[in-house]
Specification:
By secondary structure, the protein is of the alpha/beta class. Helix content is about 40%, strand content about 20%. The strands form three sheets. A seven-stranded parallel β-sheet has the order 3-2-1-4-5-6-10, with helices on both faces. A three-stranded mixed β-sheet has the order 7-9-11. It has a two-stranded parallel sheet with strand order 8-12.
Length: about 325
């Protein structure tokens, strides 16, 4: 049985990775280390509560003793490090927590992995570390790191610390950087679930600035399959960009979702732009396609249809989140 450690496994992407891996592989055991912050939801992995190939340990990665406790029964075939504060708006109003979790927390994991040994350390990052693009071109793995928000700066810092542990200590580590994820179980503060849930409730949908900020969109399960491919076929010390080849403006995304839900465009409400709002991201995933033999399976049209339908069918899930009931008993 291969022992895997997943940090942040109660969150959106981490929980998808757990569901995907346990469904695909019968020879793995996953330990889920999560602090259960507001964005962590036990409902995301509830079917595995009684699974003998799954265990949950409540862990604050910013606490070195908590991290050490994860290794008390030995090391892991692989560590998949998803745990992070990730909401840009929150990083603008409360930047310190992003430094504590994303930088200090990553350091503690790297140290523990170095001391205890690990098969492979998969450090999951973001295209936001590259900063903003003009109207043309795309980020490659060799693009300079030019973060523009406290969130992206904290992730860039953790990327550089991860790189240093490869170069200095020989830690077998791979960095992945993804474009904007979407899909089932995403916390309602993010753009796509915000649009869907407000539309379902006939509430105004806030759009920053002129709505023409551009992002590349990637279905969350496709992202998780890319991370699995990086674990199996990636080269130690390398960075792999993971993108969907699906660039859209924010206002296009809003209109696509409203059309799927048969809701009026009159719900759109333009609000003042946020501070440090990057105008455009675009990511070149050719290296991942070539070296990892990975391609996204779902187009944006297919992925949005599945995502919208999931929120329509799982009203109980998002109502528990909106009411705060998902945090009862923590």
């Amino acid at each position: 049985m291969k022992k895997l450690l997943v940090t942040g496994g109660m969150g959106f992407i981490g929980s998808c990775f757990i569901r995907t891996m346990l469904a695909k592989h019968e020879d793995i055991h996953i330990t889920n280390a999560d602090q259960l912050t507001y964005a962590g939801n036990p409902d995301n992995v509830k079917p595995f509560d009684t699974c003998d190939r799954y265990a949950f340990i409540r862990t604050d990665i910013a606490n070195a003793a908590d991290v050490e406790r994860l290794f008390e029964h030995g090391s892991y075939e692989a560590i998949f490090h998803f745990a992070a504060e990730s909401h840009v708006d929150r990083s603008i109003s409360h930047p310190e927590q992003f430094v504590v979790t994303n930088v200090l927390g990553t350091f503690h994991l790297l140290e523990a992995a170095r001391r205890h040994g690990v098969g492979t350390f998969l450090h999951v990052s973001t295209d936001e570390v590259y900063g903003a693009l003009g109207d043309e071109g795309s980020f490659s793995e060799n693009s300079p790191l030019e973060p523009n928000s406290p969130y992206s700066a904290s992730k860039a810092s953790s990327d550089l610390m991860a790189r240093a542990y490869v170069k200095t200590y020989g830690l077998p580590l791979i960095i992945t950087r993804c474009s904007n994820n979407y899909g089932p179980y995403q916390f309602p503060e993010k753009l796509i679930p915000t649009i869907i849930l407000r539309a379902l409730q006939d509430q105004p949908i806030p759009v920053y600035g002129d709505g023409r900020h551009i992002r590349d969109w990637l279905y969350v399960e496709d992202h998780c399959l890319a991370i699995e491919a990086a674990w199996k076929r990636g080269r130690v010390g390398e960075v792999y960009n993971i993108g969907g080849h699906e660039e859209r403006t924010n206002i296009e995304m809003v209109r696509m979702i409203l059309e799927l839900l048969n809701k009026p465009a009159s719900l759109i409400t333009y609000v003042p732009d946020r501070l440090g709002h990057d105008r455009r991201y675009a990511i070149n995933p050719d290296k991942s396609a070539k070296e990892l033999a990975w391609q996204p399976k779902l187009s944006l049209t297919q992925g949005l249809m599945e995502t919208v339908q999931w929120y329509v069918d799982h009203r109980d899930w998002w109502e528990r989140v909106l009411s705060g009931a998902y945090r009862e008993g923590w």
